[in-house]
Each structure stands twice: as C-alpha cells, then as structure tokens.
Amino acid sequence: MHLQDPNWHLSSGSEINGVSPKVRKVLQRLRLRQIFNGTFVKLNKASITMLRIVEPYMAWGYPNLKSVNELIYKRGDGEINKKRIALTDNSLIAQSLGKFGIICLEDLILEIETVGKRFKEANNFLWPFKRSSPRGGMKKKPPIL
C-alpha cells in the first residue's frame, strides 16, 4: 500500500452478514453495506488500518481518470434529501455541491480523481456504486484443513 497515491476505489466482494462484528463495522464505515458495492476512499494511516482488517473480504485498486469517469457516468448516483438520485442533470450537483465550487459532473469527477480540497464533500454526496456480479459467478474456495 502506497501513501503517494491518495485515492483508492474499493469494492465489497462478500456478504456483510456472517463476518465478525469488527469487520462488519469497518465495512459499514467504508460505506460497503452490500455485496458488490463500491466507493472511493482517501488513503491515510487510519484508512490503511481499516483496509488491513477487511482485506480478505474485498478488492480495491487505484482509479484513473477513465475509470472514475466511467463509474460516475454509468453508475453514479447522488444523495439528495437522503434519497438516491441518478446524476442526470448538472443542476442537481450545483444544488447540493455548489457551495463547495462543484457545479457540474466534470467538476465532481475531477475532485474525486485528484483528491482535491473538497474530496470528502464530493465523496459523501456520491451514493456507493452498485457493481454487477462477475460473469460466471464467484469462485468457491476449497476449505482449509
């Protein structure tokens, strides 16, 4: 894990039920409450500690501009009045994030990709992404004896 690249994309790869309470709490703090949910996390010492706890239950990677762009355009939803709203119009973004200088979808994408000064507000506005399940399903691991 490198602290030089301060942004990670996380995806929950397993159910939150049936795991220890500590792992469940960390997954909830990372906003990964369902299987195949994804979110962005700013890397710092605290988030790296949380990632080490939930490492067996998830996948992650460093996002680039193209992947952030595709995720937000295809699966991006915002939280407006505690409801999940599809990001179809820039006025929705300006209404919620205009006070932070984020007025359109491109500003939102740039803020997430560059981990700017308003990353926290932009990321909290984004609803966790619902990813599709892998083609062919999940591979079952043999039991360890």
TrEMBL record:
SUPFAM superfamilies, per database record: Ribosomal protein L30p/L7e
Xref: Pfam families: Ribosomal_L30
GO cellular component terms listed in the entry, alphabetical order: cytosolic large ribosomal subunit
One biological process term in Gene Ontology: maturation of LSU-rRNA from tricistronic rRNA transcript (SSU-rRNA, 5.8S rRNA, LSU-rRNA)
InterPro entries (UniProt xref): Ribo_uL30_ferredoxin-like_sf, Ribosomal_uL30, Ribosomal_uL30_euk_arc, Ribosomal_uL30_ferredoxin-like
Top-level taxon: Eukaryota
GO molecular function: RNA binding; structural constituent of ribosome
Gene3D superfamilies the UniProt entry points to: Ribosomal protein L30, ferredoxin-like fold domain (3.30.1390.20)
Domain Large ribosomal subunit protein uL30-like ferredoxin-like fold: 16-57
Record's keyword terms, sorted: Ribonucleoprotein, Ribosomal protein
CDD domains, sorted: Ribosomal_L7_archeal_euk
Family recorded in the similarity comment: Belongs to the universal ribosomal protein uL30 family.
Protein's name in the database: Large ribosomal subunit protein uL30
Organism the protein comes from: Tupaia chinensis
Lineage, broadest ranks: Eukaryota, Metazoa, Chordata, Craniata, Vertebrata
